[in-house]
Structures are given as C-alpha cells and as structure tokens.
Amino acid sequence: MPELPEVETVRRGLQPAMEGATVERLEQRRADLRFPFPEDFAARVEGRSITALHRRAKYLLIGLDDGSVLISHLGMSGSYYVDSDAAGGTPGHFHHDRSKDEKHDHVVFHLDGPGGRARVVYNDPRRFGFMLLSDSNGLEDHPLIRDLGAEPTGNALNAEHLAKHFAGKKAPLKAALLDQRIIAGLGNIYVCEALWQSGLSPRRAAGTLVSASGEPVKRLEELTRAVRTVIAAAIEAGGSSLRDHRQADGTLGYFQHSFNTYDREGEPCRRDGCGGNIRRIVQSGRSTFYCPACQR
Questions:
Q1: Which residues, including other chains, have CB under 8 Å from residue 88's CB and lie 6 or more apart?
Q2: Which one of 127, 271, 280, 286 is the catalytic residue?
Q3: Which residues contact 201 (CB under 8 A, 6 or more apart)?
C-alpha cells in the first residue's frame, strides 16, 4: 500500500495541473470503488474550482471552492495519471507497478486551469481506493481523520509525544510505530528504515524507551529523529517504495536504492563495522526487515 512519501509525491505531481483549475466535467465510470461514490458525486464536483491540494497521513485532500473537500485514498493499486500539454505521467509508480490499462480508468477530471486544459485520470484495478466528500469545516471530525496521530513531517512529532503513547506499552516497537493513532502515515517500509537507523530492534517493547517518570530516554529521542529524517529523505527523493518512478515533470524517485533493510533479506548490514545480515520476520502479518546483530 502506498505510504506517506508516495502520497506526497502524488500530491506534488498533481498540483500543477489541478490547483487553481476548474472541473469542467467529471466522468464517473462506475458506481463505486471500495465504497460507493457520494450521491450526485459528478454534479457536486463539476463547475467547482480546485483551491488547494493537501495531504493528511495517506489521504489526498482536494479542496473545492464551495468549502467541500474531496478525500481520496489510493488503496492497494490506485494511481492518478496527468494528461496535458504541459506535463504527463503517473506521479507514483510504486514498489508494485501501477496499471496503465484504460479499462481500470474509473474517474476522469476534465480541467481548465492556469496551465491550460488537462485530464487527470484515476486508475485502480483492484478498486480498494475511494473518493468521499466532506465539509472543510468538519474535516477534522471526519471518521477517517479525527483519530489520526502526529504527522511525521511536522513539529507535533517529538520524543515527548511518543513517550506519552509508549509509556507502559508491552507491544513491539514496530507495532507501536505503525499505530496510526500515534503517528499518521508511517508505514512498513519507513518503520523498518527508521528502526535500523536508530539501532533499535523491532521486537523491543515500546515501553522500554520511556523512563519510570514518563520521560523519553535518549534512544527514543534518537528514534524520533530517525523517523523524521527517513521520511524527509524519502519525500525529497520523490518516494521510497517506487520503481522506475516518474513524476509529472519527468524526474525519478531514487530513495528505493538507499534502503538499508527493507527487502534486503540475507544481504549484509550496511552499518559500518556490524558484520551482520538482514533478517526477515513476520509481525502482525507484515514482513519486518532488520539486522539482529546491531539492532537491540
């Protein structure tokens, strides 16, 4: 499933074509994706201007000039394709290739904007993605948004925040980091990379990083910095779980070439002087990659 940097890459790729544009026509080619489309979806979006594109966790938020917000999630296989004179491409070719089969083009935005006319196509073979509408004034209370934790790109994520949520937890550190109520948008790949960077075992109990008085220990501060650093680097590279990734401007996402643990089972650890090998284990049904020699 796409993770935060991939969704941020999609947002940035769509922004030149969508932000400030008017939706002249919306083609809705089926009644539902994971969920049914909102009632009168096309009619409610057509004629509206797109005021801004934002992201919250793994949700793409498309603001409209009537105060409504289109909440879009890519699911397992969803992608957007930009077709215009100025730019073209699929912003977000992920670890598993995105579909280019037109029979899976389920929604088409026909836009007229500052950069000219464009089509933005949503393609989703498995149809696990969705599009919903919300009022911007009530967005923070929306069931999908209200319980989300701190953004790993913002100042809200700090060691004190994690200490508050980790205190007394016997759950493995990896499970605690994947809890979207604690950190929003952090997924499997980035947890593996951040734990390697901070030298912490994914099996370690989360509560061991909090002192008896509830304060973060030094290693929790190191983990917090690692999470922020890994996410920032992945966004800067245009996404990390991407393969042959091309954004709308034609540039590539290369962070996948700097994975230290993810998908490197059996390969030597890249930490200087370690000498261990990367191991894969399964935690809560997900693959975890780590070095048992240096991650404690």
A1: 81, 82, 248
A2: 286
A3: 173, 195, 290, 292, 295, 296
Between residues 235 and 145, the one the model is more confident about: 145
> Using CA atoms, how far apart are residues 79 and 20, in angstroms rounded to an integer?
21
Question: Is residue 170 annotated as a catalytic residue, yes or no?
Answer: no
pLDDT digits (tens, 9 = 90+) for 219-259: 999 999 999 999 998 888 765 444 433 344 434 444 555 78
Question: Beta 105-113 vs 116-123: how paired, if at all?
Answer: antiparallel
* DSSP state letter for 150: B
Token reading at 174: 């990896």
Cα 48–Cα 54–Cα 59 angle in degrees, nearest 5: 105
Residue 62: both structure tokens together: 């498309």
User: DSSP per residue over 94-111, as a string?
Assistant: BSSPPP--GGGEEEEEEE
* Domains, the chain, with CATH or none: 4-141 (3.20.190.10), 159-290 (1.10.8.50)
Q: What span, in angstroms and rounded, lies between the C-alpha atoms of 189 and 25?
A: 37
**Mean pLDDT computed over every residue of the chain:** 89
pLDDT of 248 reads: 42
Question: What is the model's pTM?
Answer: 0.86
Q: In sequence order, which residues have a C-beta less than 8 Å from that of residue 37 and are 6 or more positions away? A: 28, 31, 131
Annotated catalytic residue within 58, 98, 174, 264: 58
Vertex 247, ends 241 and 253: CA angle to 5°?
35
pLDDT of residue 247: 46
Clarify whether 286 is annotated catalytic: yes
Please state, for a pLDDT cut of 70, what percent of the chain lies above it: 87
- Cα 251 to Cα 244: distance, rounded to the nearest angstrom: 10
Active-site hit among 2, 16, 152, 202 = 2
